[in-house]
Amino acid sequence: MRHKPFALGALVAALALLSACGASGEYSENGSGGYAGESPSAPPRSGGDSGDAAGPGGVGSPEPGQGSPSPSPGQLTAGDWDDNLNFSFFQKYLTEAPQGMPAHPSTDRVVITVRDEEGRPVPNARVTVGDAAGKRLEAPTATDGRLLFLPTQDGAQGSASFSVTVSPPPGQPGTAVTTSVEGSAWNLTLPGARGELPTELDVAFVVDATGSMGDEINYLKAELQNIVDSVRGTYPDVSARFALVMYRDDGDEYVVRSFDFTSDVAVFRQRLSEQSAGGGGDYPEAMERGLGAIHQLTWRTGNTARLTFLVADAPTHTQHYQAFVREANRARLSGIKVYPVAASGVADEAEYLMRLAAQLTLGRYIFLTNDSGIGDPHAEPHIPCYQVQLLKHLLVRAIGSELAGRRLPASGTEILRSVGSPAQDGSCTRADGTVTYL
Length: 438
Prior knowledge:
Layout: E1 26-29, E2 77-81, H1 87-95, E3 110-115, E4 126-131, E5 134-140, E6 146-149, E7 162-167, E8 177-181, E9 185-189, E10 200-208, H2 214-234, E11 239-247, E12 256-262, H3 265-273, H4 287-292, E13 304-312, H5 321-334, E14 337-342, H6 348-361, E15 365-368, E16 386-390, H7 391-404, E17 417-419, E18 427-429, E19 435-437
Parallel strand pairs: 3-9, 10-11, 10-13, 13-14, 14-15
Antiparallel strand pairs: 1-12, 2-15, 2-16, 3-6, 4-5, 4-7, 7-8, 11-12, 16-17, 18-19
Helix pairs in contact: 2-3, 5-6
């Protein structure tokens, strides 16, 4: 792998919501062998893959515990993008995908929204979609009451006639409703149910732990307490838990090392402090195995916001592209949103896969920018409009948006720079007259 900036750095924003004590667990996968060859568009390497990542101290800076000072929190900068909010633009992006990328038939996407009788979104309502041949989808709604149905991907085979059944969230009163539906937006009312904001939060971090990630992990440790304090005060009544998944590649010391959810900050800090970077060797890594590991964590199924931050700078191996998409689809069916976080090494293949995962699960694609001056240059994402802000602010707001059941936009004081001249309402008019949205 290449050297890259502190990609994990401000991801600890999510950790800010950890409180009280909780259960813990660990499992790991060991692999042998490896994959030969690199992605055709892999960026040039700036050094070996033995953990000597470039950082403020330069290439070869000491690892944590070897005399290197802890980096200051709140330096990394990033932007984000919503491919569901800009669906026409996303469809055009898919047609321009790098050669060999997995197909993503989604032009027939249906946005399902469940509300209560007062018009409030209902999180974790159970939605079942069927056609004449049987069930095509069964999954819970997100905290904003939404869920994506993708007829072609879900095996509908061109059927234009569907019925949908919506059941109340776990532990709630209400009556299941079955109705015929059509079109690309299904707005459903669930009688007797209540649109209640989540009282629980489960956040999983899935982190590339190959050689160049040493400084990222160090930065994450430095950010932890700062973010915990600031967000804890904002959401004091939320029962928050955190899980950690580290992944490398076949032939390394381990392929996946996983720590189950805990609400104990000290326990999580200890788990994180014991991690180090190493292994890798070629450009692709076992990203599909890392994302797949979230399905072995003990996610809560009640009034819970569930999200995963996937921190990566490289795609999975070519032969595992479809496996990665399958794992992202499993997240959709489990009601887990995926927020990819792209580091400096992300090239076209990784961006494509990460944006698919975000689009499938109603997450947003997050990417680091050069504004911080930390690490190697970051490739520009294939999007026309975004706002640069501190990564920690962006991630705190991503979590806050899940807890609020609606997107919380960046405030004026948080925006460092804008690309694409967004208007006050978040719209961005392109040179050809088309409009995208933040």
